[in-house]
Amino acid sequence: MPFLTEPEPQRGVPIFVLPGIRRVVARNPSVMTYQGTNTYLIEVDDGLVVLDPGPKDMEHVREVIEAAGSTPIRHIVLTHTHSDHWGAAAALAQATGAPVAGYKISEKPGFTPDLGLDHGEVIAGLTALHTPGHAADHLCFEHFLPDGTKILFSGDHVMSWSSSIVSPPDGDMLDYYRSLELLLARDEVFYLSGHGPLLADPRALVRELLAHRQFRERTILAELEQQDWVVAALSAKLYDKTDPFLKAAAQRNVLAHMLKLKAEGYVEEHEPDTTPHPDTLIITPPPGVQDESGGEFATMRADALRRFGMVAARA
Ligand SMILES: [Zn+2]
To answer: Where is this region: Disordered (predicted)?
Structure first.
């Protein structure tokens, strides 16, 4: 797929993106977060909106406040509550007094946004679009540049540098398809994603992302027509991943496809495989892995041993 790359951005300073928009890239690069989380500073009538405050890193919080300079930060807005986007919210809110806005139903235990947004609601000129799939509480935001150009803050739903992990139960493949279709019906000119550089001609990528998942789904169905499959084993067959984190991410995506096919009535779940599979044993996620892949490690390991097969043909 035509993903974009970029050299390591300068740390600790605001980088011009588009008129009225700068980003500060957090110091959390990894195989899942690319160069780090993008924290966007957006100029609005009465000051600045900070979209995705970033990970819980006081150095990053200080850099975002410095980047704002003498312009007051009026709102903190979240695309979703994964820790690499949400972690700095409390510290930044405390330092600035700005309220935190996010989807009305938070998936982060113990956290409720000060301003709960619903699909279609507007905050500081940004229109929220509920786009579950990568995360149940994911919002994209429509925004207009000073010259009237319409753009979208696409969070982790559509990223310029990589496809998104869909990790049940926070992630949901059926929702993800629907949220991609929602964007295909729209006409934003640029996407600014949670990780990676600006994306031009974004709907071409959205179409490819959807086609890629549909291809993957057909492949999984074809495999299941031959035999029942355990998630870890099928994932190892379909994805050639050696990095432990990417291996785990591949398993989460395969599980998400299985559960979508189950919800649609094609596939049923059988008793799990009780013997640990080599591809589940060697997965030792580095710190912070759960943030982007969802759930506890023990759950992920158990999920990897879940077994699925085609629904028995009705007589
Ligand atoms: Zn995320």
So the answer is: 269-295
- pLDDT tens, position by position, 215-248: 999 999 999 999 999 999 999 999 888 787 788 8
274 C-alpha to ligand 1 centroid (Å)? 31
CATH topology of domain 15-210: Metallo-beta-lactamase; Chain A (3.60.15)
CA of 164 to the centre of ligand 1 (A): 8
**pTM given for the model:** 0.93
Burial class from Cβ neighbours inside 10 Å (0-12, 13-18, 19+) for residue 10 reads exposed
Q: How far is the CA of 39 from the centre of ligand 1 (A)?
A: 13
Domain ranges (residues) in the chain = 15-210, 227-310
Q: What is the pLDDT of residues 49-108, one digit of tens each?
A: 999 999 999 999 999 999 999 999 999 999 999 999 999 999 999 999 999 999 999 999
Q: Report the amino acid identity of residue 221.
A: L
